[in-house]
Design goal:
Layout lengths: L1 H31 L13 H24 L22 H15 L20 H15 L30 H72 L2 H34 L2 H45 L2
């Protein structure tokens, strides 16, 4: 007997929850199919309904922007899917050459020093890095020194593993490709820095803000459940009154009062959470960090490209002059 009482005491709340859920579903179905008069459906406060619309719009904006911004978490988002780089372009000698040329280019300047390496730490899959590797491979094929920029004194670096003794560097196109390879490598690195800044400064906090939106949505669902529960008891009370079932009236009135109190509490909680979401400054701060990262990247890219374009323009003028002289 004691075991039976213990069993019923444990399952009692579960059956109550099941009964409440069934009552809510039944009430929801009756409302959907027009079996409940509109006047018998509890009207929620106008403030609550206005906040609902605003949070729905915010949730839609958050989802749409987050879906696109997550691309910055994938390094290869601008790497051509159809591109199949050759083994030569991905080899250690190409990576060694790019860093060696970059080291040569920083000598005697205020640019950050670059240490040449025999093998890059990682083969970055970005469009800029792919362009850099293609240009470097072409420069080497045209006879560029694997360890030094054309026109500069030799830099004391180790020859890349497996590389052959370079041909005499007499190709101006090879020299141009060297400059282009260095610029694209730096652009690729700058893009990766931008991506990391956007991921940490925007994606992470903006995603956390999404969790706050979900809390507000969960609170709204609690309001819906509480409203359905209240109206379900109101329908039971109305039916009992119409049937003259006086014995049940007191019980049903008590259930209605309890359900009203729960609805009021749930509505107040939801209003508070929705206001917190709408007034939170973090989304705008995150967006500011996003734009700052982009601005810094594009400013650095513009400065770098302007510099290399001037060098290439001068080289083109020199080559064109030599070409005309050779033609008499």
């Amino acid at each position: 007997m004691d075991q039976w009482k213990k069993f019923t005491s444990n399952v009692g709340p579960q059956f109550q929850n099941i009964g409440k859920t069934f009552g809510n579903l039944n009430q929801q179905a009756r409302e959907r199919f027009g079996a409940v008069d509109q006047e018998d459906i509890t009207e929620l406060p106008q403030e609550y309904k206005d906040l609902e619309r605003r949070v729905d719009a915010l949730k839609s904006a958050h989802t749409g922007l987050m879906k696109v911004a997550k691309v910055y978490e994938t390094e290869s988002y601008d790497y051509p899917t159809q591109l199949q780089e050759s083994i030569t372009q991905l080899s250690a000698s190409v990576g060694h050459s790019v860093t060696s040329w970059a080291a040569s280019a920083t000598r005697g300047t205020n640019l950050p020093k670059v240490s040449p390496t025999a093998r890059p730490e990682k083969v970055n899959k970005t469009l800029h890095h792919a362009l850099s590797r293609a240009a470097a491979s072409g420069a080497l094929q045209l006879g560029a020194d694997p360890s030094n920029l054309s026109g500069l004194p030799k830099l004391d670096t180790a020859q890349a593993p497996g590389s052959e003794t370079p041909l005499k560097d007499d190709s101006k196109l090879g020299e141009a490709l060297q400059k282009f390879a260095i610029a694209e490598d730096r652009l690729g690195n700058a893009r990766l820095t931008q991506d990391n800044q956007i991921t940490q400064g925007f994606n992470v906090p903006f995603n956390s803000f999404g969790a706050q939106i979900q809390l507000a949505m969960k609170a709204r669902q609690s309001v819906t459940d509480a409203r359905l529960h209240l109206d379900s008891w109101k329908q039971s009370l109305k039916s009992a009154e119409n049937a003259g079932a006086a014995a049940k009236l007191e019980q049903y009135r008590g259930e209605v009062e309890q359900a009203e109190d729960k609805l009021v509490a749930a509505t107040e909680e939801a209003i508070s959470l929705m206001k917190q979401v709408l007034e939170n400054p973090e989304p705008i701060k995150s967006l500011s960090a996003f734009v700052k990262a982009q601005a810094e990247y594009h400013a650095a890219a513009a400065e770098l490209l302007s510099s290399v374009q001037q060098e290439l323009a001068q080289l083109a003028t020199s080559v064109e002059s030599d070409y005309r002289l050779s033609r008499g």
